[in-house]
């Protein structure tokens, strides 16, 4: 990445920080895209992922990972403070993420690798 493209300090990464990071990358900075345009593009990408998942499609980004919607079956839960009380937990849809090869390698070895 470019010296201009750096993340802000903090424990989490917000959408705005990610858009600023992308906008500061030298290949984007040369294209004259504004930070607002990059934020709009990023939002469109996220909306596309949500739309695809809502249509039960897998969303796959090579080397990054795969998002998929799965149904978690209902079950009977218990209150840990009063185990004699049971609660029926209904079926629900959840999003599952499986990291890709490059992400797994980078998390195992955090040294930056060239793209």
Feature tags:
elongated, three-stranded antiparallel β-sheet, 4 helices, alpha+beta, HU Protein, Chain A, single chain, 115 residues
Give a structural overview.
By secondary structure, the protein is α+β, with helices and mostly antiparallel strands. It has helices spanning 15-24, 26-29, 35-54, 101-108, and strands spanning 59-61, 65-72, 75-79, 82-89, 92-99. A three-stranded antiparallel β-sheet has the order 1-2-5.
**Number of DSSP strands?**
5
Integer count of domains: 1
- Helix/strand order: HHHEEEEEH
How many helical elements? 4
Shape: elongated
- CATH class category label: Few Secondary Structures
Biggest sheet overview = 3 strands, antiparallel
- The helix/strand class is alpha+beta
Here the CATH topology equals HU Protein, Chain A
- Rounded average pLDDT: 87
Strand content: 25-35%
Strands of the largest sheet, in order across it?
A: 1-2-5
Residue runs with pLDDT of under 50 for 5 or more positions: none
Helix fraction bin:
25-40%
- Based on the coordinates given, report the CATH architecture: Irregular
Compact overview of the structure:
The protein contains 4 helices and 5 strands; from the N terminus they run αααβββββα.
Q: What is the topological layout?
A:
Layout: H1 15-24, H2 26-29, H3 35-54, E1 59-61, E2 65-72, E3 75-79, E4 82-89, E5 92-99, H4 101-108
Antiparallel strand pairs: 1-2, 2-5, 3-4
């Amino acid at each position: 990445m470019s010296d201009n493209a750096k993340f802000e300090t903090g424990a989490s990464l917000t959408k705005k920080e990610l858009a600023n990071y992308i906008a500061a990358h030298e290949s984007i900075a040369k294209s004259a895209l504004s930070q607002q345009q990059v934020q709009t593009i990023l939002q469109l990408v996220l909306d596309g992922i949500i739309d695809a998942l809502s249509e039960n499609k897998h969303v796959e980004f090579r080397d990054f990972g795969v998002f998929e919607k799965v149904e978690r079956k209902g079950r009977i839960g218990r209150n840990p403070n009063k185990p004699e009380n049971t609660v029926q937990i209904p079926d629900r849809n959840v999003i599952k993420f499986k990291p890709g090869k490059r992400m797994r390698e980078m998390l195992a070895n955090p040294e930056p690798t060239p793209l």
